[in-house]
Specification:
The structure is a homodimer. Helix content of chain A is 42%, strand content 26%. Chain A contains 16 helices and 17 strands.
Amino acid sequence: MHAEIITIGDEILIGQIIDTNSAFLGKEFNKAGISIYQITSIQDDKMHILKALKEAEENADIIIITGGLGPTKDDITKHTLCEYFDDTLVEDKTVLANVEDIFSKYNIPLLDVNKQQALVPSKSKVLMNHNGTAPGMWLEKNGKVFVSLPGVPFEMKALITDQVIPKLRTQFKFPYITHKTLLTYGLGESSLAARIEEWQNNLPNFIKLAYLPSLGRVRIRLSGKAADEAMLNAEIQKQVSLVLPLIEDIFVGYEEDESIETIIGKRLTELGQTLAVAESCTGGRIAQAFTANAGASAFFKGSVVTYATASKVKILKVSEDDIKSHSVVSKEVAETMAKNVRVLFNSDYAISTTGNAGPTKGDSEAEIGTVCIAIATKDAIYSEEFNFGKHRERVIGKATNKAFEMLRKEI
Amino acid sequence: MHAEIITIGDEILIGQIIDTNSAFLGKEFNKAGISIYQITSIQDDKMHILKALKEAEENADIIIITGGLGPTKDDITKHTLCEYFDDTLVEDKTVLANVEDIFSKYNIPLLDVNKQQALVPSKSKVLMNHNGTAPGMWLEKNGKVFVSLPGVPFEMKALITDQVIPKLRTQFKFPYITHKTLLTYGLGESSLAARIEEWQNNLPNFIKLAYLPSLGRVRIRLSGKAADEAMLNAEIQKQVSLVLPLIEDIFVGYEEDESIETIIGKRLTELGQTLAVAESCTGGRIAQAFTANAGASAFFKGSVVTYATASKVKILKVSEDDIKSHSVVSKEVAETMAKNVRVLFNSDYAISTTGNAGPTKGDSEAEIGTVCIAIATKDAIYSEEFNFGKHRERVIGKATNKAFEMLRKEI
């Protein structure tokens, strides 16, 4: 049982937006036991949409189409669907009522072009969009399912979770798919692979292994697919228990759907402990990662981004002498930042970063890429100095990841 | 002249990573005058890769393949390229020297599997990767160009900019492609479309228009393609001057490759003025956006994320009386935050946010989605209250965008 995703919209092809919808769909479909065979991104162009639909129908059993349902002239998906299914558009009264309701709620004048959102192919089943005016449309042909959804991520996501996947489950029986991702820090992809090669060679054929390296860390992912859920889970569990002793020194934790900052947040919340952050070169990235998750207020007290050196002195009481003798990018300064931000916010833990992300040297003579990170607890402070290379974006990313890693080990 | 992008890797199809490479490629190719016909994401699977290569060869003149070049077992792209081009892998001495150099520089043991990175199809021209071990490979067949690149964004980007695009330019003559994006705030897509419909109907056929709605704003993009660069630029300029009077009240600025925070940063730097930020519900998102750009230290003094109410009182001197009488999510509190963070960091401008992002109410009785934003200058303070709905991620995103919009108008 395969699915294909077709995303429609020039904005993806010219790189004006990043296609986050497909990642969401990939994740949700996998959880439901449906493999994604291919993701195809194409233009708002009738002939191209028709071609993509035909190819997808040959490749897959379920075709999810996102985008191209807006009220404006560049959106032609609905008319093209009619051509593909030899159908015509008819007005759906429930959709029209929904459109009218939304416009009256926000007190916006209802235009004719908005009323056209209620036109759907006569052969389609409407999937009501409770978050916007463009409905989802479910069509079938030769036992294959086509679902056309709005491209607005928020609207698409609700339709997938609440309606598309439940409805697919009533029509198809899906195998069980599961992934287990192990997060490691500090060893390169090839050295890691060499270390666990023998174990990898002995994996059963229904479990695949993948390496996902990124800034300073490698994730290894076990993916299994089988009809028997209990057997598959037991086998994955067994394989994890075999590999863990081989990576003990570099293993940080599991990553289900979870990022390391989510794992840290959950752990702190369980422990009833709190965190404060003082950032310089990471510029708010660490705070932002923690507060992106709901429930952050249970453990996250706050942060200070002391970007300018003067603000380190004024707000975090870093001594001017330390800055003179050790430079503003130093373990000493990082430690004072961590110590004092912990006191400032009255938290159990604190983490601080100070560094030169480049491309030019700032208030410090430290080499570009130098970053000092400190962790403070009620009882102790420690810090490390790193060099994360010459590329600003990567320096910020690596420093953020390293800060998470150090904090994770501390808790 | 069309290009197609093929991305290889299960991690995209199962949604474990978001495909940012394609957006970069789309943007850079467009700038160079090359239209992307299609983006196809497929698994690490030999038959599927062969099928995708064949289809891309039919559709496009230039085929860019990213991913699948890592040293570990899940990567099979190189062997599949040999099969497609009826070729064999040979060792490239320059690539081997590069691999050895990287490993000795970082003092990592060089394994046999790493040496295999130096194997390339004998018919390929090597594109040296100065940032990693996997080289780019340039192959040709029936006048069509295939370029295989590593999937690591950082390595891929440098190869595209420094080698692939310059080399394509020596072999092909590309038309001129240009985009002009106008950023509007505060009017819905369909109302905007209705307002400018007559103008849109009169656009010449080599200029396309697209609407890109997102949290609280609509971008309208003019895309032109022609052999004559001067004529195209003049026509785009003319069309912009025709539409501007129609959208005067909602027009914020142009968005070239630039986000609104980049525009603000440049403007402040030109004026020699500075900014400080006090964030509550946006949790560091605003600071992070400003500091993501190089040169931020010229205007960005720093920020405080006062997530906990106590820290608003302690660090930003918000009065407990104000919190009691107006609630912590109030224009009064936002104004004090902005006023005091400006003084704390000694900046010219300050911006503050306080709100309930949900999903549950925090320290305030304010409705979920309520956000107050304040701007402080040396002479004045003003604030506005908004409701951004019930969805945490969208509330944070809309509040951040609105803060940028308010600040942009102020400067």
